[in-house]
Amino acid sequence: MNPVVVTSAGMVRGTSRAGIVCFQGIPFAAPPEGPLRFRPPAPPLRWDGIRDAVAFGAAPPQLAPAPGAPAMWRPGDGLDCLTVNVWTPDAGAAGLPVMVWIYGGLWKHGSAGMPHYDATALAGSGVVVVTFNYRVGFEGFGHLPGVPDNRGLLDQVAALEWVRDNIAAFGGDGGNVTVFGQSAGASSAVLLMAAPAARGLFRRAIAQSIPAGARTREEAETVTATIAQAAGVPATWDGLAGLPPEALLALQDTPLRGRTDGFTAFGPVVDDDLVTGQPWTALEAGTGHDVDLVCGFTHEEYRGQGPLPAAGVDLGAVAEALGLGKPAGTAYRRAYPTLTDTDLFTVLLSDALIRMPTTRVARAHAHAGGRTWLYDFTWEGATLGAAHGIDIPFTFGNATSRFATRFLGSPPPPDFGELSGQLRTAWTSFATHGDPGWPRFTLDQQTTRLWNLPPADTAYPLEASRQIWDRTAPA
After folding, report:
1. Angle (nearest 5°) at CA 194 between 189 and 199
2. Is 139 a catalytic residue?
3. 420 a catalytic residue
4. What is the pTM for the complete model shown?
5. What is the DSSP letter of 35?
């Protein structure tokens, strides 16, 4: 008999598979449509009887993440996307540690229903795992006058409030919650560490590949104005809420007109409330120091994110475009004398996009007295090396999804299971006891875990890059 659980909005019935009980598509907020569109999340509507929680809810509106990739959302899916999913090893238990996943996707893609986020294997390690949807793109991060910014982050807060209020019914301990996420999800986790609205909702965080990317209010206003002009409507709630989601999606990349505009027009907006700056900014002031933090990066973060240049790339010009100044190109050549210019380009972009932002977060948290652990995921797949996102299959123990195959090949390499098991043990140990199993990162002892087989603990491996960025990078 499939288990039934009572939540604050009504009863739900899940399914059992491989010894794990799964509940899918439980609303944690009302559909953000009609008068609720572009508004903060509202409480979910109650239901009578037992709701079958056996299928993922609709994804938030978005385009396919890449040509040829399956679309997670279609116009007929609508806007009823704010749902959670729970995997529990024992719905009748009490006090199990809880892990809440926040997906990445450039702030414009992502869904908890993506197959590579299936948490059956992870929950098998003795934790309750929650995944959820939050609004992305303009729906979640577009700036509008008179409307709160960062609706996607407010969705995340609402999901964490749902966890606090309901997770005990699934066997979890609402006082022992670890937020974990990758890329935009990692940045979200760090921003929430410092956000007053999320205080007390989780005690630990695992941030896998933290990007920069917070927008100033002025930058966000420019994005909105550009999209509204392309749509031929006023840059107001009335003007843009009258457009169907697919119309906005067709124009979402309109602001990306220059080579240095990046991959997305969206990101958290500095509202001086939920977001005060880049992910490390609030941590530098000590806010969030009481939340334990594991953070890290893959060793070749730029691999798989963009094209590699031909030989003879002008590293000075690349460094200048990144805000470092031309002399930084020469500094990189001196710091890494055995690398080709193409390899140096990968190093420089990996540093700019993820590795230095993550390093700044670790240092800021440690400086403020926070318990901090740092890692570098160096295991290389056959196709893209240690690329951005390769750690996700290892985190969830899923080696055969379309996403995993892109990094691992098919069949997956024979050492996948061993490294995945060790990584999942570290993550669930941290969620349970607050210790991932290697020495803490401090400013005096910058110990860094190298995730490979066998794992190793070493001094911080990117000191040459860090010194270049500390000398020349903008704040």
Report:
1. 90
2. no
3. no
4. 0.96
5. G
